[in-house]
TrEMBL record:
<dbReference type="Pfam" id="PF13460">
    <property type="entry name" value="NAD_binding_10"/>
</dbReference>
<dbReference type="InterPro" id="IPR016040">
    <property type="entry name" value="NAD(P)-bd_dom"/>
</dbReference>
<dbReference type="InterPro" id="IPR036291">
    <property type="entry name" value="NAD(P)-bd_dom_sf"/>
</dbReference>
<feature type="domain" description="NAD(P)-binding">
    <location>
        <begin position="7"/>
        <end position="193"/>
    </location>
</feature>
<protein>
    <submittedName>
        <fullName>SDR family oxidoreductase</fullName>
    </submittedName>
</protein>
Length: 216
């Protein structure tokens, strides 16, 4: 399986790329900074250098040619302002979906955020509210497309070691989840085409990933 991953140098993406390479699939990570290419090569991924804030749909579609699936796992990251939440978390996601359709890649998995529909809740600072609005706008754009999409909304991300024990549902409640476990669930979603058309929340839980997916 050839899987092209936007945000290829992110921590979740690096875990996913390693998992794909370990089972002899072909992960391809899109990175903005060429200095990051060795980190992807080290986990067994191919690299494509593209800035999704500046590229056009033809350039991104070329990177997606021949892929079996696309995974959007990019984000503006900590320290970025409201503007980049829109250009990356929404704009780059829309561009990546446009490119997937142009390249004929139907399977599309997008990493969103738990509580993406709660940007207006009191207590959010303006940048975090902008992040949630961008994630929700990207979700709504994807849902309107003729793609076999799945949206995965993880809870609060941690760098703890993965446990392989999760809770996956349309609504889970807010809790934490190790990035390593998010990557493992993304791998399982790639193997579970029946999850197309679903928006799923993910937090740590008691079930194995296989059991959790079998119950949704």
């Amino acid at each position: 399986m050839r899987v092209v991953i936007a945000g290829g140098h992110g921590q979740i993406a690096l875990h996913l790329e390693k998992l794909l390479a370990q089972r002899h699939d072909a992960p391809v990570g899109i990175v903005r900074n060429p200095d990051h290419e060795p980190d992807l090569t080290a986990v067994g991924a191919e690299t494509v250098v593209l800035d999704l804030e500046k590229s056009d749909v033809d350039a991104v579609a070329k990177a997606l040619e021949g892929a079996d699936a696309a995974v959007f796992s990019a984000g503006a990251g900590p320290g970025s302002g409201e503007g980049r939440k829109d250009t990356v978390d929404r704009g780059a996601a829309v561009l990546f979906a446009d490119a997937a359709q142009r390249a004929g890649v139907r399977r599309f998995i997008q990493v969103g955020s738990i509580n993406a529909d709660k940007a207006d809740d009191p207590g959010h600072d303006p940048v975090f509210a902008a992040y949630l609005r961008a994630k929700l706008a990207a979700e709504n754009d994807l849902k309107a497309r003729d793609l076999d999409w799945t949206i995965l909304r993880p809870g609060r991300l941690t760098n703890a070691s993965g446990t392989g024990r999760v809770k996956i549902a349309e609504k889970t409640g807010t809790a934490e989840i190790p990035r390593e476990d998010v990557a493992a669930v993304l791998l399982a979603l790639l193997d579970t085409p029946a999850t197309a058309g679903r928006t799923l929340e993910l937090v740590s839980g008691e079930d194995s990933i296989a059991d959790a997916l079998s119950r949704i």
